[in-house]
Amino acid sequence: MALRISCNTQISTSPQAKVDSRSKKCLQNVKSIVNNVGLPSMSSSPLEALKRGNWVKLICGASFEDVVDIRNLSLVYTLAGVDCIDCAADASVVNAVNEGIEIARDIINLRRPWLMISVNDDKDLHFRKAEFDPEDCPADCSRPCVNVCPANAISFQENTAPEYSFDIQIPRDGVITERCYGCGRCFPVCPYDKIREVTYIRDATTTSDLMKSDDVDAIEIHTSGRQTTTFRELWTALGDSVKYMKLIAVSLPNGGDSTISTMNEIFSTMEPNLQSFNLWQLDGRPMSGDIGRGATKETIAFAVQMANARDRPPGFLQLAGGTNAHTVDGLKREGLFQTTIVTENSDYATSRTGSADSSQALIGGVAYGGYARKIVGKALRGMQSQHGVAACIEDHPQHLLLALEEALALVRPFKCR
Ligand code: SF4
Ligand code: SF4
Protein backbone atom coordinates (compact mmCIF):
# COMPACT_ATOMS: atom_id res chain seq x y z
CA MET A 1 0.00 0.00 0.00
CA ALA A 2 1.45 3.36 -1.01
CA LEU A 3 1.38 5.85 1.82
CA ARG A 4 1.48 9.58 1.40
CA ILE A 5 4.50 11.16 3.05
CA SER A 6 3.35 14.26 4.82
CA CYS A 7 3.73 15.69 8.27
CA ASN A 8 1.28 18.50 7.67
CA THR A 9 -1.89 16.49 7.57
CA GLN A 10 -4.10 17.07 10.57
CA ILE A 11 -5.10 14.02 12.54
CA SER A 12 -8.82 13.46 12.16
CA THR A 13 -10.21 13.46 15.67
CA SER A 14 -13.69 14.65 14.94
CA PRO A 15 -16.32 13.99 17.60
CA GLN A 16 -18.22 12.04 15.00
CA ALA A 17 -15.31 9.61 14.67
CA LYS A 18 -14.94 9.28 18.42
CA VAL A 19 -18.54 8.50 19.19
CA ASP A 20 -19.09 6.12 16.32
CA SER A 21 -19.82 2.86 18.08
CA ARG A 22 -19.59 0.60 15.07
CA SER A 23 -16.35 -1.35 15.18
CA LYS A 24 -15.99 -1.52 11.42
CA LYS A 25 -16.23 2.22 11.10
CA CYS A 26 -13.71 2.73 13.92
CA LEU A 27 -11.23 0.37 12.32
CA GLN A 28 -11.65 2.30 9.08
CA ASN A 29 -10.95 5.49 11.03
CA VAL A 30 -7.76 3.94 12.39
CA LYS A 31 -6.62 3.16 8.85
CA SER A 32 -7.56 6.64 7.65
CA ILE A 33 -5.61 8.30 10.43
CA VAL A 34 -2.51 6.25 9.80
CA ASN A 35 -2.77 6.88 6.04
CA ASN A 36 -3.44 10.58 6.34
CA VAL A 37 -0.72 11.28 8.87
CA GLY A 38 1.74 9.50 6.59
CA LEU A 39 4.70 9.69 8.94
CA PRO A 40 8.10 9.33 7.26
CA SER A 41 8.73 6.19 9.27
CA MET A 42 6.01 4.40 7.38
CA SER A 43 8.07 4.28 4.24
CA SER A 44 11.65 4.56 5.49
CA SER A 45 13.72 2.12 7.47
CA PRO A 46 14.59 2.43 11.16
CA LEU A 47 18.20 2.97 10.11
CA GLU A 48 17.24 5.91 7.90
CA ALA A 49 15.33 7.37 10.85
CA LEU A 50 18.48 7.23 12.98
CA LYS A 51 20.48 8.95 10.27
CA ARG A 52 17.84 11.65 9.84
CA GLY A 53 17.37 12.20 13.55
CA ASN A 54 13.73 11.17 13.71
CA TRP A 55 14.07 7.70 15.24
CA VAL A 56 11.49 6.95 17.93
CA LYS A 57 11.70 3.92 20.18
CA LEU A 58 8.99 2.63 22.49
CA ILE A 59 10.40 1.27 25.75
CA CYS A 60 8.06 -1.37 27.11
CA GLY A 61 10.41 -1.65 30.09
CA ALA A 62 13.37 -3.92 30.73
CA SER A 63 11.50 -5.47 33.66
CA PHE A 64 7.91 -4.95 32.53
CA GLU A 65 6.44 -8.35 31.71
CA ASP A 66 2.69 -7.88 31.53
CA VAL A 67 2.31 -9.55 28.15
CA VAL A 68 -1.25 -8.35 27.61
CA ASP A 69 -0.30 -4.70 27.99
CA ILE A 70 2.91 -5.21 26.03
CA ARG A 71 1.05 -6.74 23.11
CA ASN A 72 -1.51 -3.92 23.01
CA LEU A 73 1.13 -1.20 23.46
CA SER A 74 3.23 -2.69 20.66
CA LEU A 75 0.21 -2.76 18.36
CA VAL A 76 -0.72 0.87 19.06
CA TYR A 77 2.82 2.25 18.76
CA THR A 78 3.51 0.26 15.59
CA LEU A 79 0.49 1.99 14.06
CA ALA A 80 1.86 5.30 15.35
CA GLY A 81 5.07 4.70 13.42
CA VAL A 82 7.78 3.94 15.98
CA ASP A 83 11.05 2.59 14.61
CA CYS A 84 11.85 0.20 17.41
CA ILE A 85 10.17 -1.52 20.35
CA ASP A 86 12.40 -2.28 23.30
CA CYS A 87 11.32 -4.99 25.74
CA ALA A 88 12.50 -7.47 28.34
CA ALA A 89 14.82 -10.23 27.17
CA ASP A 90 12.23 -12.90 27.75
CA ALA A 91 10.73 -15.19 25.12
CA SER A 92 7.10 -14.66 26.16
CA VAL A 93 7.55 -10.88 26.14
CA VAL A 94 9.23 -11.02 22.72
CA ASN A 95 6.29 -13.10 21.45
CA ALA A 96 3.83 -10.53 22.80
CA VAL A 97 5.65 -7.66 21.06
CA ASN A 98 5.79 -9.56 17.80
CA GLU A 99 2.10 -10.41 18.02
CA GLY A 100 1.25 -6.73 18.54
CA ILE A 101 3.44 -5.70 15.60
CA GLU A 102 1.96 -8.28 13.25
CA ILE A 103 -1.64 -7.44 14.13
CA ALA A 104 -0.91 -3.76 13.50
CA ARG A 105 0.51 -4.72 10.12
CA ASP A 106 -2.61 -6.76 9.40
CA ILE A 107 -4.66 -3.61 9.97
CA ILE A 108 -2.51 -1.55 7.65
CA ASN A 109 0.59 -2.50 5.70
CA LEU A 110 3.34 -0.67 7.56
CA ARG A 111 7.02 -1.41 7.61
CA ARG A 112 8.06 -3.44 10.63
CA PRO A 113 9.73 -1.69 13.60
CA TRP A 114 12.84 -3.36 14.99
CA LEU A 115 12.45 -5.43 18.12
CA MET A 116 15.14 -4.78 20.72
CA ILE A 117 15.76 -6.77 23.90
CA SER A 118 17.28 -5.15 26.99
CA VAL A 119 19.80 -6.80 29.28
CA ASN A 120 22.18 -5.66 32.03
CA ASP A 121 25.80 -6.37 32.78
CA ASP A 122 25.46 -5.72 36.52
CA LYS A 123 23.06 -4.47 39.20
CA ASP A 124 20.89 -1.82 37.54
CA LEU A 125 17.78 0.18 38.42
CA HIS A 126 15.97 -1.11 35.35
CA PHE A 127 16.43 -4.71 36.43
CA ARG A 128 14.74 -4.97 39.79
CA LYS A 129 11.35 -5.65 41.30
CA ALA A 130 9.60 -4.50 44.44
CA GLU A 131 8.46 -7.21 46.79
CA PHE A 132 6.56 -7.41 50.08
CA ASP A 133 4.33 -9.80 51.92
CA PRO A 134 0.85 -8.25 52.11
CA GLU A 135 0.13 -10.43 55.15
CA ASP A 136 2.73 -8.35 57.02
CA CYS A 137 1.05 -5.04 56.26
CA PRO A 138 -0.75 -3.46 59.22
CA ALA A 139 -4.49 -3.40 58.65
CA ASP A 140 -4.67 0.32 59.36
CA CYS A 141 -1.99 1.27 56.81
CA SER A 142 -3.40 3.81 54.34
CA ARG A 143 -1.49 1.96 51.59
CA PRO A 144 0.40 4.86 50.01
CA CYS A 145 2.36 2.32 47.95
CA VAL A 146 -0.75 1.67 45.84
CA ASN A 147 -1.24 5.32 44.93
CA VAL A 148 2.40 6.07 44.14
CA CYS A 149 2.90 3.14 41.74
CA PRO A 150 2.77 4.37 38.12
CA ALA A 151 2.30 0.85 36.79
CA ASN A 152 -0.73 -0.19 38.82
CA ALA A 153 1.54 -2.94 40.04
CA ILE A 154 0.38 -3.00 43.66
CA SER A 155 -3.02 -4.40 44.39
CA PHE A 156 -5.10 -5.09 47.45
CA GLN A 157 -8.30 -5.88 45.62
CA GLU A 158 -9.28 -9.37 46.57
CA ASN A 159 -11.43 -11.54 44.34
CA THR A 160 -10.44 -9.69 41.19
CA ALA A 161 -8.00 -12.17 39.72
CA PRO A 162 -7.82 -11.19 36.07
CA GLU A 163 -8.63 -13.59 33.26
CA TYR A 164 -5.44 -13.50 31.27
CA SER A 165 -5.34 -15.46 28.04
CA PHE A 166 -1.58 -15.81 28.47
CA ASP A 167 -0.26 -18.42 30.83
CA ILE A 168 0.77 -16.21 33.74
CA GLN A 169 -0.20 -16.08 37.37
CA ILE A 170 -1.26 -12.76 38.83
CA PRO A 171 -1.40 -12.51 42.63
CA ARG A 172 -4.45 -10.89 44.10
CA ASP A 173 -2.63 -8.89 46.76
CA GLY A 174 0.77 -7.27 46.95
CA VAL A 175 3.10 -6.56 44.04
CA ILE A 176 1.96 -7.83 40.67
CA THR A 177 5.45 -8.88 39.65
CA GLU A 178 4.81 -8.82 35.90
CA ARG A 179 3.75 -5.18 36.04
CA CYS A 180 6.49 -3.90 38.37
CA TYR A 181 9.26 -2.26 36.34
CA GLY A 182 11.44 -1.25 39.25
CA CYS A 183 10.91 2.51 39.32
CA GLY A 184 11.46 2.49 43.09
CA ARG A 185 8.79 5.06 43.96
CA CYS A 186 7.07 2.74 46.42
CA PHE A 187 10.19 2.08 48.53
CA PRO A 188 10.38 5.40 50.40
CA VAL A 189 6.63 5.84 50.94
CA CYS A 190 6.06 2.72 53.03
CA PRO A 191 5.82 3.92 56.64
CA TYR A 192 6.64 0.41 57.91
CA ASP A 193 9.62 -0.27 55.65
CA LYS A 194 8.02 -3.44 54.32
CA ILE A 195 9.05 -3.17 50.68
CA ARG A 196 12.22 -4.91 49.53
CA GLU A 197 14.20 -4.46 46.32
CA VAL A 198 14.96 -7.64 44.38
CA THR A 199 17.60 -7.21 41.71
CA TYR A 200 18.57 -9.62 38.98
CA ILE A 201 20.84 -9.96 35.95
CA ARG A 202 19.54 -11.40 32.70
CA ASP A 203 21.15 -14.71 31.84
CA ALA A 204 23.65 -14.36 28.98
CA THR A 205 22.98 -17.81 27.51
CA THR A 206 19.22 -17.21 27.31
CA THR A 207 19.89 -13.79 25.82
CA SER A 208 22.27 -15.24 23.27
CA ASP A 209 19.65 -17.80 22.17
CA LEU A 210 17.05 -15.06 21.79
CA MET A 211 19.44 -12.99 19.67
CA LYS A 212 19.87 -15.90 17.27
CA SER A 213 16.12 -16.18 16.72
CA ASP A 214 14.44 -14.37 13.84
CA ASP A 215 12.27 -12.50 16.33
CA VAL A 216 14.92 -10.10 17.62
CA ASP A 217 16.65 -7.34 15.62
CA ALA A 218 18.62 -5.46 18.25
CA ILE A 219 20.01 -5.63 21.75
CA GLU A 220 20.54 -2.98 24.39
CA ILE A 221 23.07 -3.48 27.16
CA HIS A 222 22.52 -1.39 30.28
CA THR A 223 25.72 -0.57 32.06
CA SER A 224 26.47 1.64 35.05
CA GLY A 225 29.51 3.28 33.47
CA ARG A 226 31.38 3.03 36.76
CA GLN A 227 33.69 0.36 35.39
CA THR A 228 33.81 -1.71 32.22
CA THR A 229 34.80 -5.15 33.51
CA THR A 230 31.23 -6.44 33.72
CA PHE A 231 30.48 -5.12 30.25
CA ARG A 232 33.48 -6.96 28.87
CA GLU A 233 32.39 -10.18 30.59
CA LEU A 234 28.87 -9.96 29.18
CA TRP A 235 30.12 -9.07 25.69
CA THR A 236 32.39 -12.11 25.74
CA ALA A 237 29.55 -14.34 26.98
CA LEU A 238 27.28 -13.17 24.16
CA GLY A 239 29.90 -14.40 21.69
CA ASP A 240 29.01 -14.47 18.02
CA SER A 241 25.30 -13.94 18.69
CA VAL A 242 25.99 -10.20 18.24
CA LYS A 243 26.49 -10.78 14.52
CA TYR A 244 22.74 -11.50 14.16
CA MET A 245 21.86 -7.99 15.36
CA LYS A 246 21.09 -4.97 13.18
CA LEU A 247 21.88 -2.61 16.04
CA ILE A 248 23.79 -2.82 19.30
CA ALA A 249 22.77 -0.20 21.87
CA VAL A 250 24.53 0.64 25.10
CA SER A 251 22.48 2.48 27.71
CA LEU A 252 24.41 4.42 30.31
CA PRO A 253 23.86 7.24 32.79
CA ASN A 254 25.72 10.52 32.72
CA GLY A 255 28.99 9.89 34.52
CA GLY A 256 30.19 13.45 34.06
CA ASP A 257 33.80 13.84 32.94
CA SER A 258 34.40 10.10 32.84
CA THR A 259 31.54 9.36 30.42
CA ILE A 260 33.54 9.73 27.23
CA SER A 261 36.43 7.57 28.41
CA THR A 262 33.95 4.90 29.53
CA MET A 263 32.24 5.00 26.13
CA ASN A 264 35.60 4.66 24.37
CA GLU A 265 36.55 1.68 26.52
CA ILE A 266 33.20 0.02 25.81
CA PHE A 267 33.54 0.69 22.09
CA SER A 268 37.03 -0.79 21.98
CA THR A 269 35.59 -3.91 23.65
CA MET A 270 32.83 -4.19 21.05
CA GLU A 271 34.72 -3.14 17.94
CA PRO A 272 36.55 -6.39 17.05
CA ASN A 273 33.28 -8.25 16.45
CA LEU A 274 30.87 -5.39 15.90
CA GLN A 275 29.24 -6.01 12.54
CA SER A 276 26.21 -3.77 12.92
CA PHE A 277 25.54 -0.16 13.78
CA ASN A 278 25.84 0.89 17.37
CA LEU A 279 23.92 3.39 19.46
CA TRP A 280 24.48 5.15 22.77
CA GLN A 281 21.33 5.56 24.85
CA LEU A 282 21.80 8.65 27.03
CA ASP A 283 19.81 7.78 30.15
CA GLY A 284 19.25 11.19 31.70
CA ARG A 285 16.92 10.58 34.62
CA PRO A 286 15.90 6.92 34.54
CA MET A 287 12.22 5.96 34.47
CA SER A 288 10.89 9.45 35.14
CA GLY A 289 9.29 10.69 31.90
CA ASP A 290 5.79 10.35 33.30
CA ILE A 291 6.55 12.71 36.19
CA GLY A 292 6.35 15.93 34.18
CA ARG A 293 8.07 18.71 32.26
CA GLY A 294 11.16 18.95 34.50
CA ALA A 295 12.05 15.28 34.08
CA THR A 296 13.41 15.79 30.58
CA LYS A 297 16.04 18.40 31.57
CA GLU A 298 18.70 15.87 32.51
CA THR A 299 18.55 13.98 29.25
CA ILE A 300 18.66 17.25 27.27
CA ALA A 301 21.72 18.30 29.30
CA PHE A 302 23.29 14.90 28.58
CA ALA A 303 22.60 15.38 24.86
CA VAL A 304 24.25 18.81 24.88
CA GLN A 305 27.29 17.39 26.68
CA MET A 306 27.65 14.54 24.16
CA ALA A 307 27.00 16.74 21.14
CA ASN A 308 29.87 19.00 22.20
CA ALA A 309 32.26 16.15 23.00
CA ARG A 310 35.01 15.92 20.41
CA ASP A 311 36.46 12.52 21.17
CA ARG A 312 33.40 10.36 21.61
CA PRO A 313 33.39 6.96 19.87
CA PRO A 314 31.29 6.17 16.78
CA GLY A 315 27.61 5.44 17.18
CA PHE A 316 24.24 7.11 17.05
CA LEU A 317 23.10 9.11 20.07
CA GLN A 318 19.59 8.61 21.42
CA LEU A 319 17.88 10.19 24.41
CA ALA A 320 16.03 8.31 27.16
CA GLY A 321 15.31 8.66 30.88
CA GLY A 322 12.86 11.47 31.52
CA THR A 323 11.77 11.81 27.89
CA ASN A 324 8.22 13.01 27.35
CA ALA A 325 6.11 15.48 25.37
CA HIS A 326 8.54 18.30 26.31
CA THR A 327 11.66 16.64 24.93
CA VAL A 328 11.30 17.92 21.35
CA ASP A 329 11.07 21.53 22.58
CA GLY A 330 14.13 20.98 24.76
CA LEU A 331 16.13 19.73 21.79
CA LYS A 332 14.92 22.59 19.61
CA ARG A 333 16.01 25.13 22.23
CA GLU A 334 19.50 23.65 22.14
CA GLY A 335 19.60 23.53 18.34
CA LEU A 336 19.87 19.74 18.41
CA PHE A 337 16.57 18.68 16.86
CA GLN A 338 17.24 16.82 13.59
CA THR A 339 20.51 18.70 13.17
CA THR A 340 22.65 16.87 10.62
CA ILE A 341 26.44 16.75 10.63
CA VAL A 342 29.11 15.06 8.55
CA THR A 343 30.49 12.38 10.83
CA GLU A 344 34.17 12.32 11.69
CA ASN A 345 34.01 8.55 11.46
CA SER A 346 33.31 8.29 7.77
CA ASP A 347 35.24 5.03 7.36
CA TYR A 348 33.05 3.46 10.02
CA ALA A 349 29.85 4.74 8.43
CA THR A 350 30.90 3.67 4.94
CA SER A 351 31.85 0.18 6.07
CA ARG A 352 28.41 -0.39 7.52
CA THR A 353 26.17 1.28 4.96
CA GLY A 354 28.12 0.58 1.81
CA SER A 355 27.51 4.27 1.09
CA ALA A 356 29.98 7.11 0.99
CA ASP A 357 27.37 9.39 2.55
CA SER A 358 28.64 9.90 6.08
CA SER A 359 26.18 12.63 7.07
CA GLN A 360 23.93 11.83 9.97
CA ALA A 361 21.93 13.54 12.68
CA LEU A 362 23.82 14.71 15.73
CA ILE A 363 21.04 13.24 17.87
CA GLY A 364 19.59 10.16 16.19
CA GLY A 365 16.38 10.00 18.14
CA VAL A 366 14.51 9.46 21.33
CA ALA A 367 13.13 6.59 23.39
CA TYR A 368 9.86 7.02 25.26
CA GLY A 369 9.09 4.73 28.17
CA GLY A 370 6.97 5.56 31.21
CA TYR A 371 5.35 8.56 29.54
CA ALA A 372 4.44 6.55 26.41
CA ARG A 373 2.93 3.80 28.53
CA LYS A 374 1.05 6.27 30.69
CA ILE A 375 -0.76 8.14 27.90
CA VAL A 376 -1.82 4.99 26.06
CA GLY A 377 -2.41 3.22 29.36
CA LYS A 378 -5.44 5.42 29.98
CA ALA A 379 -7.12 4.01 26.87
CA LEU A 380 -6.06 0.47 27.77
CA ARG A 381 -7.47 0.77 31.29
CA GLY A 382 -10.73 2.18 29.89
CA MET A 383 -11.02 -0.79 27.56
CA GLN A 384 -10.18 -3.28 30.30
CA SER A 385 -12.74 -1.86 32.68
CA GLN A 386 -15.40 -2.53 30.05
CA HIS A 387 -14.16 -5.70 28.42
CA GLY A 388 -11.80 -7.39 30.91
CA VAL A 389 -8.06 -7.23 31.41
CA ALA A 390 -7.33 -9.76 28.67
CA ALA A 391 -9.06 -7.65 25.99
CA CYS A 392 -7.26 -7.32 22.66
CA ILE A 393 -7.37 -3.71 21.54
CA GLU A 394 -7.99 -4.48 17.87
CA ASP A 395 -11.29 -6.08 18.94
CA HIS A 396 -12.38 -2.74 20.37
CA PRO A 397 -11.55 -0.23 17.65
CA GLN A 398 -13.09 2.74 19.46
CA HIS A 399 -10.51 2.24 22.22
CA LEU A 400 -7.81 1.63 19.62
CA LEU A 401 -8.72 4.95 18.05
CA LEU A 402 -8.31 6.78 21.37
CA ALA A 403 -5.03 5.01 22.09
CA LEU A 404 -3.69 5.77 18.62
CA GLU A 405 -4.50 9.47 18.95
CA GLU A 406 -2.50 9.59 22.18
CA ALA A 407 0.42 7.70 20.66
CA LEU A 408 0.50 9.89 17.56
CA ALA A 409 0.46 13.04 19.68
CA LEU A 410 3.75 11.86 21.16
CA VAL A 411 5.43 10.28 18.13
CA ARG A 412 4.47 12.75 15.41
CA PRO A 413 6.32 15.83 16.73
CA PHE A 414 9.57 13.87 16.67
CA LYS A 415 8.91 12.54 13.19
CA CYS A 416 8.20 15.94 11.69
CA ARG A 417 10.11 19.18 11.57
S1 SF4 B 1 8.97 -0.32 42.03
FE1 SF4 B 1 7.67 1.13 40.89
S2 SF4 B 1 6.54 -0.16 39.46
FE2 SF4 B 1 7.37 -1.53 41.05
S3 SF4 B 1 5.73 -1.71 42.54
FE3 SF4 B 1 7.10 -0.06 43.25
S4 SF4 B 1 6.17 1.82 42.42
FE4 SF4 B 1 5.27 0.09 41.31
S1 SF4 C 1 2.72 1.13 52.45
FE1 SF4 C 1 3.93 -0.59 53.28
S2 SF4 C 1 2.75 -1.41 54.97
FE2 SF4 C 1 1.38 -0.07 53.81
S3 SF4 C 1 0.32 -1.48 52.38
FE3 SF4 C 1 2.11 -0.68 51.30
S4 SF4 C 1 3.75 -2.17 51.68
FE4 SF4 C 1 2.12 -2.57 53.18
From TrEMBL:
<keyword id="KW-0004">4Fe-4S</keyword>
<protein>
    <recommendedName>
        <fullName>4Fe-4S ferredoxin-type domain-containing protein</fullName>
    </recommendedName>
</protein>
<feature type="domain" description="4Fe-4S ferredoxin-type">
    <location>
        <begin position="128"/>
        <end position="159"/>
    </location>
</feature>
<dbReference type="InterPro" id="IPR021039">
    <property type="entry name" value="Fe-S-bd_prot_LdpA_C"/>
</dbReference>
<dbReference type="InterPro" id="IPR057431">
    <property type="entry name" value="LdpA_Fe-S-bd"/>
</dbReference>
<keyword id="KW-0408">Iron</keyword>
<dbReference type="InterPro" id="IPR017896">
    <property type="entry name" value="4Fe4S_Fe-S-bd"/>
</dbReference>
<dbReference type="InterPro" id="IPR017900">
    <property type="entry name" value="4Fe4S_Fe_S_CS"/>
</dbReference>
<dbReference type="GO" id="GO:0046872">
    <property type="term" value="F:metal ion binding"/>
</dbReference>
<dbReference type="InterPro" id="IPR050157">
    <property type="entry name" value="PSI_iron-sulfur_center"/>
</dbReference>
<dbReference type="Pfam" id="PF12617">
    <property type="entry name" value="LdpA_C"/>
</dbReference>
<dbReference type="Pfam" id="PF25160">
    <property type="entry name" value="LdpA_Fe-S-bd"/>
</dbReference>
<keyword id="KW-0479">Metal-binding</keyword>
<keyword id="KW-0411">Iron-sulfur</keyword>
<feature type="domain" description="4Fe-4S ferredoxin-type">
    <location>
        <begin position="171"/>
        <end position="200"/>
    </location>
</feature>
<dbReference type="GO" id="GO:0051539">
    <property type="term" value="F:4 iron, 4 sulfur cluster binding"/>
</dbReference>
